[in-house]
Automatic annotation (TrEMBL):
<protein>
    <submittedName>
        <fullName>Putative 1-phosphatidylinositol 4-kinase</fullName>
        <ecNumber>2.7.1.67</ecNumber>
    </submittedName>
</protein>
<feature type="domain" description="Ubiquitin-like">
    <location>
        <begin position="11"/>
        <end position="61"/>
    </location>
</feature>
<keyword id="KW-0418">Kinase</keyword>
<dbReference type="InterPro" id="IPR029071">
    <property type="entry name" value="Ubiquitin-like_domsf"/>
</dbReference>
<dbReference type="Pfam" id="PF00240">
    <property type="entry name" value="ubiquitin"/>
</dbReference>
<keyword id="KW-0808">Transferase</keyword>
<dbReference type="GO" id="GO:0004430">
    <property type="term" value="F:1-phosphatidylinositol 4-kinase activity"/>
</dbReference>
<dbReference type="InterPro" id="IPR000626">
    <property type="entry name" value="Ubiquitin-like_dom"/>
</dbReference>
Amino acid sequence: MHLVLRLSDLQEINVRTNCGKEFTFHVERGKDVGYVKQKIAKNSKEFVDLEEQEVVLDGKR
């Protein structure tokens, strides 16, 4: 198996939760919000209900 990943295809996403936890992810540009929510749930030590998560960027949902 050979994987080629261009660095220009990655973007850094910083996430801060309402309870103050911060995460940084390097995500491929084609991924959607659902993918980021899954990454948050996977990296959180607490149970995270994906349906309950709300994404806000610059004050907009």
